[in-house]
Design goal:
It is built from six helices and six strands; from the N terminus they run βααβββββαααα.
């Protein structure tokens, strides 16, 4: 793919089919950037981490075609971000591909007149820092997957809806709440349980949590169901503790 020479290895190659023409898909891809139309991902998470982006419902004619040398900004106000991300445009060919340094390649493939495939190849940044490499491998890649998956799905929804509609992110917020609350509930369960169950049951639930986060579709029904299920375990443990507590002298 174009841009493969920019990295010695690749972190991921992901794709999604979009029910829109190649030209319409390219118009929205050309909007990528914090000061354009954002990154089509979890806007509320980006805001929380200090990444200020615009979220537009129209294709702005004020945005010219991206060309090599342009800079796609990760935030409108970089100083507020926990880590500053900037993506210089290395190469671009309208309705074909967009190559970004520090990210990778966005490639469009025409399937038919009304369907386009978007392929995103992410480059793995080189580092000699063992601690950073370990964090990136065990934590960073999972976080990147969650956000890039949201970008692909969000981009698909935006292109297929066309100009005008403003998206409601309530479902995204409910899904994220279920994921976060489930993680906290598993931590609580570790302190409530005893013996071998203290490790075995939270380990099984953590596996279910990982599957919910990385494998299942990011929709509220899965994360909230997991949260309710874990809460059931917590209530069961509390009830067991009460029944196993020493009897009072009055009994």
């Amino acid at each position: 793919m174009p841009g493969d020479d920019l990295s010695a290895e690749f972190q991921s190659t992901r794709a999604i089919n979009i029910n829109a023409s190649l030209s319409d898909t390219w118009l929205w891809l050309n909007q990528l950037g914090a000061d354009r139309s954002g990154f089509f991902s979890y806007y509320f998470i980006e805001q929380f981490l200090g990444y200020e982006t615009r979220s537009q419902a129209t294709i702005a004619p004020t945005f010219p075609d991206l060309v090599p040398g342009d800079l796609i900004r990760g935030s409108i106000t970089p100083s507020k971000s926990i880590i500053i991300y900037e993506f210089p445009v290395v190469a671009t060919q309208p309705e074909k591909h967009l190559v970004l340094k520090n990210w990778g390649t966005f490639l469009l493939h025409r399937l038919n007149e009304n369907q386009t495939r978007l392929i995103v190849r992410t480059h793995r940044p080189a580092t000699n820092n063992l601690a950073k490499a370990t964090f990136d491998y065990y934590v960073g890649e999972g976080l990147h997957f969650v956000m890039e998956r949201a970008t692909l799905k969000g981009f698909k929804a935006r292109v297929e809806a066309g100009e005008g509609p403003v998206f409601d992110d309530t479902k995204d917020k409910l899904w994220f709440f279920g994921i976060l609350a489930s993680a906290i509930a598993i931590a609580v369960l570790i302190f409530l349980m005893r013996g071998i169950q203290r490790l075995a049951i939270p380990a099984l639930l953590s596996t279910g949590w990982t599957i919910t986060l990385l494998t299942l579709d990011p929709v509220p029904i899965y994360s909230l169901a997991l949260f309710v299920f874990i809460c059931g375990f917590i209530l069961h443990q509390i009830a067991n503790r009460k029944t196993q507590s020493p009897m009072s002298n009055g009994d």
